[in-house]
Amino acid sequence: MATRSHASSLQISRETRERFVAATEALIEPVAHAIGERLVALASQTGNARDMQENRDGFLAFQAHGADWVAHTRGAWRKALASSSSGGSSSNSLRLELIGDEVVETNILSSRLAQAIQDKASFELNDLRLRVQHLEGTHELDAKDVLKPEAFAKVLVDQWLASGLSRGLWIKIQDQMQTHMVDALVNAYKDANAYLISRNVMPEIDLKSFVRRTGSVSSGAAALGGSFAASHASGSASMGISAQQQGPRGGYALPAGSFAPAAIGVGMGRGGAAVTSGDVMGATGGSPLLVARQRAQGVLLNLKRFVTARIGGDISQHRPAAGGVVGGPAGVAGAPAFAAAIADAEVAYQAAASQYIVGDEATAVLQATVDLRRRSAELKKKAPTTADKATVEIVALMFQAILAEERIPFSARVWFARLQMPVLRVAIAEPEFFGTLQHPARMLIDRMGSCVMGFDAAAISGSALEGEIRRVVQVIEQYPETGQRVFKLVFDEFVAFLNKYLTQSDTAQKVMSVAQQVEQKETMAIQYTIELRKMLNDMPVREEIREFLFKVWAEVLAIAALRYGPQDEQTVMLKRSASDLVWAASAKPNRNDRTRVIQDLPKLLQRLRQGMTLLGIVGDTQEQHIKTIGATLSDAFMSKTEAIPQAKIEAMAKRLANLEDFVSDEGTMDVPLDAASIELLLGVDAASIEVVPDTGTKVGEDMLAWAHELQVGNWFMLDHNDRVSQVQFVWRSERKQLHLFASSDGRSFLIQVGRLASYLQAGLLVPAEEETLTVRATREALAKLDANPERLLN
């Protein structure tokens, strides 16, 4: 590719912005029209007198000022373009100033709209950002760049208020605004990317070349982070997202498909106070799965740095125990007296916990929290080292967060709380618990948490799932000396339990059975076709017969093998029909051969009809196939070409009879799927199964990897056909081609792997939980420690 001059590059980026602003400016008037219709509908509603009056006032206000809003917005948007084109200044320094309530409220309104755009257009927006940065030789777009969603959103809101319209009225119509605005903006971003690609600007984006790291922290970030930032200024190895992406409970809302994490922070505490790490690692690449993992690992890294700055050592590495022994056997906690104290605290809490199951849950949670806090304080006094004191405090804060997690039904929370002492023991003996997300104790708690947080209390109480959690905890309590080994054992057992528990309903069993057989049938059909092609490769067979065998008869053989068995009499007969058809359609210069064809033809056509009927090909479609075959056989009578040797026909028949010996079980190819094929296969009604087949849309390997790594039992929000459902991932087929999700209202969604990856990429399937339970608990523990550092060793 020829090197482009800097002036030429700037011209292309300027034209890109001009085209984008023109496209988005064209949206303003249609949106205003939709808002007007919405306000008319609201004004026509009857009900509460006050609401009726407010609706009428809103309608009249928009009638009076709506045109002004359109005009002012267009003007301000064009002015924003001029500012971007002239290379407005971009300051990354942090300014600390008092902000009025009205400004905050206005920013909230524009941020909501900007986030809706960001969520839907994350892929296109990120690609556009990278291409423009490449053209301009910059590391980030200006804060007020028109290409940023927040720029357009801010213009819309600011001009709304400047035109005399109220914030309250905006809130009434903001859903209407998003409905008519977001998809159109996504298309505008797509068009901008298409334009840049047409100008040969990064047709293919290599994300690895855009990763950048920095070991410094800006003075503003350090000032904002306070003591926490000061203790973490040694480098960076974590990823996160911007403040606009923080979730409502202090987690991070991870827009599926987002590639653009910005500054890493520990996050938001339950009270909403920002905790800033001061570490910055700019990264512009990575799938949402990778981003989430790196963000979670960043929480552990920040915890390590926080503690290291205060105790002078790395809490996540093996350290000398009391008496000078490094590490020590699993389950041995520091000094014997300390180990005994942990054991006593565990027994005492087990005895006390039984009473929490009965009575007022809020009181019981408070009692449990106070009890665990008191026992932790006593253990800290007996801890032989500062590292042990810190470990006790961190684990206690983590389990406080878990115990306070209202999305975990209370009956399950009681058993989660009983894991505090076993986890403390393993965290002291195996401090890598704080350094890796793959520690079996973390994995177990996260997996159990991801399952129970989707159920209501009534569904959990007394269920087999609650019983399994109880069993898991009791097994861990019985083997305190085994360290992480017992956690690994019960984790594997819990996963095996889930695979049975989540699919025990009749509906799930039926869907699984059908889905598995559909997958087997389609995989066999594809590979039967491959084998038939090999067999006919060097045979003079007419194209019409080849087409019929590859596209129809391979399917017939697959469904027969699945329904009756590969060596059943009917299946064998249909296999033989394939070789008979090949012979009948070959040249027949010999009179005896022609006589034989005439004699055998009625039976052959009957078998062909029988096979097509088995496949669901009936009526006119079947007659058309028979007509084509008949015409081909007639031509064979007139052909003067060489006939296919009988030995080849017999060899083909023998290979067909043992076709399964040549079929691979790889299952890596695409599997066609639809409701009709399910009903045909087993004759069942597929009404309760929402079949979501592949559409051929190309998805990245990272998205397919994400689809393959989804864990059974996890909950998701599924947006399918404009209906959002909370669903649980309950089953994956053996070949990983089909995935079953179950909703609480009894519906089942059978999703093919390619479509599943597309849904993940488009944000139509989003994890219900932004973080795993232990990562969120660690982050909340760190937020408390940052606010009150003295408590770590007190």
Structure description:
By secondary structure, the protein is mostly helical. It has 27 helices and eight strands. The chain has helices at 6-44, 49-85, 101-136, 149-162, 167-198, 219-225, 227-230, 288-311, 336-353, 361-382, 386-403, 410-417, 420-429, 440-452, 457-460, 464-478, 484-501, 506-535, 543-564, 569-584, 591-615, 619-638, 646-657, 675-682, 701-709, 753-762, 773-787, and strands at 267-268, 274-275, 689-692, 715-720, 723-732, 738-743, 748-752, 765-767. The strands form two sheets. It has a six-stranded mixed β-sheet. A two-stranded antiparallel sheet has the order 1-2. A hairpin with a 2-residue loop joins strand 4 (715-720) and strand 5. Helix 3 (101-136) packs parallel to helix 5 (167-198), helix 9 (336-353) packs antiparallel against helix 13 (420-429) and helix 18 (506-535) packs across helix 24. The longest helix has 39 residues, at 6-44. It starts with 5 loop residues before the first helix and ends in a 7-residue tail after the last helix. 41% of the residues are buried. Mean pLDDT is 75; it is low at 86-99, 207-278, 280-285, 320-334, 662-671 and 680-684.
Topology:
Elements (H helix, E strand, L loop, with lengths): L5 H39 L4 H37 L15 H36 L12 H14 L4 H32 L20 H7 L1 H4 L36 E2 L5 E2 L12 H24 L24 H18 L7 H22 L3 H18 L6 H8 L2 H10 L10 H13 L4 H4 L3 H15 L5 H18 L4 H30 L7 H22 L4 H16 L6 H25 L3 H20 L7 H12 L17 H8 L6 E4 L8 H9 L5 E6 L2 E10 L5 E6 L4 E5 H10 L2 E3 L5 H15 L7
Parallel strand pairs: 3-7
Antiparallel strand pairs: 1-2, 4-5, 4-8, 5-6, 6-7
Helix pairs in contact: 1-2, 1-5, 2-4, 3-4, 3-5, 8-27, 9-10, 9-13, 10-11, 11-12, 11-13, 11-27, 12-16, 14-17, 16-17, 18-19, 18-24, 19-20, 19-21, 20-21, 20-23, 25-26
